[in-house]
Amino acid sequence: MEILLAKPVLIGMHLGLAILGIDAFLWLAGEYAAGAQVVRRRIIAAVLGFLGFMGSWVVGGYYYVKFYGPLVKPVIKAGLAPWAHAIAMEAKEHIFLLIVPIAITVLLTTRATESSLRRPTMWLALLLAGMGLAIGAMGFIISAAYRFGVINTVV
Amino acid sequence: MKNLKLICSSAYSALVTGLATVAVTIYMEYSPAFKVFLTSLTSHHWISKSLGSLILYSLLWFILYKSMGDKNEQQTKRALWSLFVFTILSALAIFLFYVWHFLAT
C-alpha cells in the first residue's frame, strides 16, 4: 500500500489509466469508423474507457489534494513558469470534470443499433480521446514547470 | 425506445453538468466566500466540485428520465450532437477564462 501511495507511482497510475481511457475511446471511434457491427466489442471498449478515466480521476485527485497543493504548487508558482499552475493546472482539473458524464453517455449509446447515432457517438468518443490528450499535454507542462521550478530554486 | 430515452436524458444531464461546472468554476474565482464554503463541505474545494458534478449529473439524469416522454432516433441524435458542441464550448470557456484571469491579474 505504501508503494501504491508513493508520489511517482500515483502519477504513473494517473497517467496510465488516462492512457487506457484515451486508447479505449480511440478504439471505440475506430469501431464506428470501420462500420463494425459487433455491439459487444463496442461495449468492452467503452467500459474500459470509462473505467480508465474514472480511475485516473480518483488517483489523480488523491495526488492533487494530498501532494500537489502543499508540495508542487508552491514550487511552480515561485519558478520560471507560474502560468503552468494558473492556466494549465486550473484548466486541467476543471476540464476533467466534464469527461465522466460524457463517457457514461457514450457507454450507453454503444448498445444502440440505430444507424444515425453512429456518427455523433464516434465524434463524442473522439472528443473524449482528444480531451484526454489535451489534459495529458497540460500535465506534461505542469511536470516540466515543476522540474524547472526546482532547478530555479536550487540554482 | 427505453434505451433512447436513457441516452437522451444522460446526454442532456451531462450537457447541463458541464455548463454548471463552468459557472461554478468561474464564480469561485470571484467569490472567496463561495470557495471557503466549497472547502468546508469536503476539506477541499475541488473534491466538492467533483462530487457535486457527479451528484448533479445523477440527479438530473434521474429527473429527466422520469419526466421525459419516449424519444425517437432523431431526438437522440440531436441530444448527442448538442452534448458534443456544448462540451467543446465548456472546455474552451474554462481554458480561456484561466488564460484571461492569469493575464489580467
Can you characterise this structure?
The complex is a heterodimer of chains A (155) and B (105). Chain A is mostly helical. Chain A has helices at 7-33, 39-78, 83-109, 118-154. The model of chain A has no long low-confidence stretch (mean pLDDT 93). By secondary structure, chain B is mostly helical. Chain B is flat and about 50 Å long. The mean pLDDT of chain B is 96. At the A-B interface, helix 2, helix 3 and helix 4 of A face helix 1, helix 3 and helix 4 of B.
Question: What is the element string of chain A, with H for helices and E for strands?
Answer: HHHH
Number of strands of chain A: 0
Q: What's the overall average pLDDT of chain A, rounded?
A: 93
Largest sheet of chain B: none
Radius of gyration of chain B, in Å, reads 16 Å
- Biggest β-sheet of chain A, characterized? none
- Total helices of chain A: the number is 4
What is the radius of gyration of chain A? Answer: 18 Å
Low-confidence stretches of chain A: none
Shape of chain A: elongated
The percent range for strand residues of chain B is under 5%
Structural class of chain B: mainly alpha
Q: What is the helix tally of chain B? A: 4
Binned, the helix content of chain B reads over 70%
Beta-strand percent range of chain A:
under 5%
- What is the end-to-end distance of chain B? 51 Å
| CA(first)-CA(last) distance of chain A | 35 Å
Number of extended strands of chain B? 0
Q: Give the quaternary arrangement of the chains.
A: heterodimer
The general outline of chain B is flat
